[in-house]
Automatic annotation (TrEMBL):
Biased composition regions of type Polar residues, renumbered to the chain: 134-145
Protein name: Glutamine--tRNA ligase
Annotated InterPro entries: aa-tRNA-synth_I_CS, Gln-tRNA-synth, Gln/Glu-tRNA_Ligase, Glu/Gln-tRNA-synth_Ib_cat-dom, Glu/Gln-tRNA-synth_Ib_codon-bd, Rbsml_bL25/Gln-tRNA_synth_N, Ribosomal_bL25/Gln-tRNA_synth, Rossmann-like_a/b/a_fold
Family in the record: Belongs to the class-I aminoacyl-tRNA synthetase family.
Gene3D superfamilies according to UniProt: HUPs, Ribosomal Protein L25, Chain P
Residue ranges, annotated region (Disordered): 126-145
Residues in Glutamyl/glutaminyl-tRNA synthetase class Ib anti-codon binding domain copies: 341-441
Any GO MF annotation of the entry: ATP binding
Length: 561
């Protein structure tokens, strides 16, 4: 086996085996089939990357198909959001499809099954049907309506379509095997009555097909070659194949369903019901909140599509469900933004520093490199003046030899500027330091080439000129849950693990180059982390979100606790 073959995931091995057995490469077609009943999350991103990635690998078309068979929960808003998310991730679909495109064909095939005695109208209540379906260890019993005549079934089904019956009065069921060990094969429901307007077909239909009946037949209509689903659909494969057997033409491509494992992400939940509860209970502001694992939330927080694609590629495809540490996702966004994000200076916990020997009223504009990882990024000018802000944690009156920042009697370099030395400090009545007085070496300007500028000092600090600083709202986001798997505790509600410190809002002071940054722009606040401009930002009030810190501080916190 070659190295390239060894590197294939098990789904790619399946495809390669099909090609070796004579399946035409030109007949390969994939699909991403979201239901438009909510926003896509990081779990969907893995599926998107899988299907579209296979399309790119094999130069095969990939359809974007919306499984829109439940008008009670689906909206055009979700359709638009899904398309936006897929495009943002960097993928282009071949054709945009909808299960609702096939409502007539599905109905016609249902009529065919009724005529062949393979489907019937059941008029039991949902409770009665559940009771007679049996258990995994006990066979079900047949519905008293299972042997209705073809004529009666056709008449009732047409009446359902015409809107003559209330919801719940009748359903269409496939006639398969009430003793099957696979409970999904025990006469599954194919159609139910719903008197609700559909976001595309409006009120044209009063009956809507169920997922299992719709999915495989839609794959077949679109000639999808490999229908890839998550593991919870493994038991559905037998039914998928049974429904295909009723309509398939041997001269056409028969779709093949195969399953892969979900990749759950630590310190979050991805159940739509639970995500909705976070929104409804006000734990987060919306589905787009930067703490949410939705793609729109990650985008707003500052994650790049490249980082999410790299994350999906790194975790790969597996046959067993497992929990992926969110730190791996954070590593990927750090790794990508390190290459592309401009470096800027911002102070988030300011301490005033007065450079006493710098002339009052003067200022100068210093050269600052935008990104040492990217030569083409160029440089910018930053203002320097007598009074600046540094971070409070970067100064101590006294400190041991391992403290390489500013302390009394010692020197540090100001990034892109001068070497300064702390001489004294001022405190308030409670003993808090409010100001530090320093002197600077006029000949030590960074990049000047003087002997003084080349002098080595151990610490380098970021800073901003107080006179020129931009005031900004800075939102410091952290993990939404304190537990790595909050929804797996049988005796506890997942809401008990909500992190009370998942958002802290502060006022920061930024260098003036950030004044006109566009929404979504990602930058590195030097020594602090990666941040991006939030949609709430205006020219009057800048708003930045912390995407991720420069290092994984969470691991240290967990060790201490």
């Amino acid at each position: 086996m070659s190295d390239s073959e060894k590197s294939l995931n098990f789904l790619e091995h399946i495809i390669e085996e099909d090609l070796k057995n004579g399946f035409s490469k030109d007949a390969l077609r994939f699909r991403f089939p979201p239901e438009p009943n909510g926003y896509l999350h990081i779990g969907h991103a893995s599926s998107i990357c899988l299907n579209f990635g296979l399309g790119l690998r094999y130069k095969a078309p990939v359809n974007l198909r919306f499984d829109d068979t439940n008008p009670a929960k689906e909206e055009q808003e979700f359709v638009d959001a899904i398309k936006r998310d897929v495009e943002w991730l960097g993928y282009k679909w071949d054709t945009e499809r909808y299960a609702s495109d096939y409502f007539q064909q599905l109905y016609d095939w249902a009529i065919l099954l009724i005529k062949e005695g393979k489907a019937y109208i059941d008029s039991q209540t949902s409770e009665e049907m559940a009771a007679q379906k049996g258990t995994p260890t006990e066979a079900g019993t047949e519905s008293p309506f299972r042997n209705r005549s073809v004529e009666e079934n056709l008449k009732l089904f047409e009446g359902m379509k015409a809107g003559k019956f209330e919801e719940g009065m009748h359903v269409l069921r496939a006639k398969i095997d009430m003793t099957s060990s696979n409970m999904l094969m025990r006469d599954p429901i194919m159609y139910r009555v719903l008197h609700k307007a559909h976001h595309r077909t409006n009120t044209d239909w009063c009956i809507y097909p169920m997922y299992d009946w719709t999915h495989g037949e839609s794959d077949y209509i679109e000639q999808v070659s490999h229908s890839l689903c998550t593991l919870e659909f493994a038991m559905h494969r037998e039914l998928y194949d049974w429904f295909l057997n009723q309509v398939v033409d041997e001269n056409k491509v028969r779709p093949k369903q195969r399953e892969f494992a979900r990749r759950n992400l630590s310190h979050t939940v991805v159940s739509k019901r639970k995500l909705a509860r976070l929104v409804e209970d006000g734990v987060v502001d919306s589905w787009h909140d930067p703490r949410m694992p939705t793609i729109s939330g990650l985008r707003r927080r500052g994650y790049s599509p490249e980082s999410i694609r790299n994350f999906a590629d790194t975790i790969g495809i597996a046959k067993r469900d497992n929990l992926i540490d969110v730190s791996l996702l954070e590593f990927q966004v750090r790794d990508h933004l390190n290459k592309v994000a401009p470096r800027v200076m911002g102070v988030l916990d300011p301490l005033k520093v007065v450079i006493t020997n710098y002339p009052e009223g003067e200022e100068e504009w210093l050269d600052a490199e935008n990104n040492p990882e990217d030569e083409a990024a160029g440089s910018r000018k930053v203002p320097f003046s007598r009074e600046i802000y540094i971070e409070k944690e970067d100064f101590r009156e006294e400190a041991n030899k391992k403290f390489f920042r500013l302390k009394l009697g010692k020197e540090v370099r100001l990034k892109n500027a001068y070497i300064i030395k702390a001489e004294s400090c001022t405190k308030d009545t409670e003993g808090n330091i409010t100001e530090v007085q320093c002197i600077y070496d006029p000949k030590s300007k960074s990049g000047s080439g003087t002997e003084e500028s080349l002098r080595k000092v151990k610490g380098t600090l970021h800073w901003v000129s107080i006179e020129h600083a931009l005031e900004a709202e800075v939102r410091l986001y952290d993990r939404l849950f304190t537990d790595e798997s909050p929804d797996t505790h049988k005796d506890k509600d997942f809401m008990e693990f909500v992190n009370p410190d998942s958002l802290k809002t502060i006022t920061g002071y930024l260098e003036p180059s950030m004044k006109d940054l566009k929404v979504g722009t990602q930058v590195q606040f030097q020594r602090l982390g990666y941040f991006c401009v939030d949609p709430d930002s205006t020219s009057e009030k800048l708003v930045f979100n912390r995407t991720v810190g420069l290092r994984d501080s969470w691991a240290k916190i967990q060790q201490k606790s």
